[in-house]
Amino acid sequence: MDRRIMAVAAAIVAIALASSPSSSPFAGASDPNNLQDFCVAIDGSKANVFVNGKTCKNPTEVTADDFFLEARLVTPRNTSNSLGSTVTPVTVEQLPGLNALGVSIGRVDFAPNGVSPPHTHPHAAEVIAVADGVLYAGFVDSKSKLFAKTLNPGDVFVVPKGLVHFLFNVGGSRTAVAFSGHGSQNPGGITVANSVFAADPPIFPELLAKAFQLDSGVINNLQSQIWYEPSK
């Protein structure tokens, strides 16, 4: 299975690179074009400079290690959580060499019946490829129309930028693995339930009760729960 997983991961990287601004002048759903060979990220939290991305490392100090992350996507992650899924991201936060390149990748592990709950990536479209198991994937457009497919190993599914989408392991007792490529160095992630019911400070329960047409007691119960983030 490891060889097949790596093949799918390589395909995702190729698709992401093909849609990046550095390889196509017509790609619009990605980060801005780079104005230099590279811009390896450094920790700019102590600098009095704010940029759309990360502060660049001095090019004379850049090494091959800035573009390399060893075996991060090989090892299965622990899925013993309330969702039964865990995300292993490779964004600019984990790989500084991705800064300003407009691409990122990730691995998602699913326990049997595990779910990647409805969420959005506000900064990028997503390409999903199944490496092992069977997943039900879908997204909802701005007219509330559902687009969904059952994915088997080797199948690919595309999610347009910013739309709510999900993944669900429907392979019975089998685990599942998927790889995702994004057209951004930092696609962002907003889980619908978490953002609504775990906002800090909390959204007025009366507002949510009216918006979702639910009893206020149900809203209070939802807001009192601990909402798990699969990427953390």
Keywords:
five-stranded antiparallel sheet; 232 residues; globular; 4 helices; 12 strands; alpha+beta; 17% helix; Jelly Rolls
What does this structure look like?
One of its GO terms (molecular function) is manganese ion binding. The chain has 232 residues and is an alpha+beta fold. It has two domains: 3-18 and 38-188, Jelly Rolls; 189-231. The protein has four helices and twelve strands, in the order H-E-E-E-E-E-E-E-E-E-E-E-E-H-H-H. The chain has helices spanning 2-18, 192-197, 205-212, 216-224, and strands at 41-42, 55-56, 85-90, 104-110, 115-120, 126-132, 135-140, 146-151, 156-159, 164-169, 176-182, 190-191. The strands form three sheets. Strands 3-4-11-6-9 form a five-stranded antiparallel β-sheet, covered by helices on one side. It has a five-stranded antiparallel β-sheet with strand order 8-7-10-5-12. A two-stranded antiparallel ribbon has the order 1-2. Strand 7 and strand 8 form a beta hairpin. The longest helix is centred in the N-terminal third of the chain and has 17 residues, at 2-18. It is globular. Residues 22-29 have low confidence and may be disordered.
Low-confidence stretches: 22-29
Number of domains: 2
Q: Helical segment tally? A: 4
Strand elements, count:
12
- Tell me the β content: 25-35%
Please provide the ordered H/E string of secondary-structure elements. HEEEEEEEEEEEEHHH
**What top-tier CATH class of the largest domain fits best?**
Mainly Beta
CATH topology name of the largest domain, in short, is Jelly Rolls
Helix content: 10-25%
How can the largest sheet be summarized?
Answer: 5 strands, antiparallel
Work out the radius of gyration. Answer: 19 Å
